[in-house]
Write a structure and sequence with these properties.
Length: 101
């Protein structure tokens, strides 16, 4: 009886162990490349994705492992009299957003 209870306990713990659980599907992920070709007040921009600050972009910067879906992008220049750039993006593949073409 003790061996049966012990065996059941070991099997239960082994089934719950994270290393033995089947891997969960991560789903597709995509990259977003921001190319900032602006000069002057917009040479560096603050980047917001879905109203969340994601960092400073000067030149090019890649944001990796983004899930598919809709994104509201906003870039705001850091200098005097800056411009604000916006874009709505349905991310279904790797994408590029170029500022100041």
């Amino acid at each position: 009886m003790k061996r049966t209870v012990l065996a059941l306990t070991v099997l239960t713990l082994a089934a719950c162990a994270p290393g033995l659980a089947p891997p969960q599907a991560a789903g597709p992920r995509y990259d977003l490349l921001i190319q900032n070709r602006c000069t002057g007040a917009n040479q560096s921009v603050y980047l917001y994705i879905n109203n969340r600050y994601f960092g400073l972009v000067r030149g090019s910067r890649t944001f990796t492992e983004l899930r598919p879906g809709f994104y509201d992008l906003r870039a705001v220049g850091t200098g005097n009299d800056p411009e604000t750039f916006t874009r709505q993006l349905n991310l279904t593949r790797d994408s590029v957003w170029t500022l100041c073409l």
